Amino acid sequence: MKKVSLILSAAVITAMMLSSCGGSSYKEVKIGNQVWMAENLNVEKFRNGDPIPHANTLAKWRKAGQEGKPAWCYYDNDPANGKIYGKLYNWYAVSDWRGLAPEGWRIPSDADWSKLVELLGDREVAGGKLKSTDTTYWKSPNTAATNETGFTALPGGYRTNLGHFYTIGFNGNWWSATEDDATGAWDRSLNYDNSTVISYDDNKELGLSVRCVRD
After folding, report:
1. Would you state the pLDDT for residue 25?
2. How many domains does the chain have?
3. Model-level pTM?
């Protein structure tokens, strides 16, 4: 893909705002004509008020995935991580008919993610514009991080289908709403040592972070 030199201006990115979602306030930022949450989703109820099962043990997490049922957890099952990184969700929570996204929001499709990346120059440079600049949460060197979009991506790691936790500090991963096949769905990943936005077709049983876009 041809690289695009792009200077992000006030016409592309607006000031960060706060929006209230089901009693919780989320930071949001406008990038191009998309409005994204500027922090990870942290809900434990579906839009209709039903609770999302909290899979805080290996057995619960594995069982939910094997049965194709929704689940959430904190990284390492530690609520302190939730205050920084939000919750990790399997894709069955993302796709549940009751709605994971709060009122007025939706889970971004693979096309939504692609549109964001294209606006920011291409997949090789967009990651730096999305990553928080800190090295408190991101491991050094947090390559090319500028956060000029205000997206403030953090490295919340992920949970495997077997229930193990990996890569906090090194890697952030976000689901899309787009299914690939019976076992896989598309997501996006950012890493501490490069500025690339990577697209993966991952197992629906994994626990990843979620960002939402405005309807």
Report:
1. 77
2. 1
3. 0.90
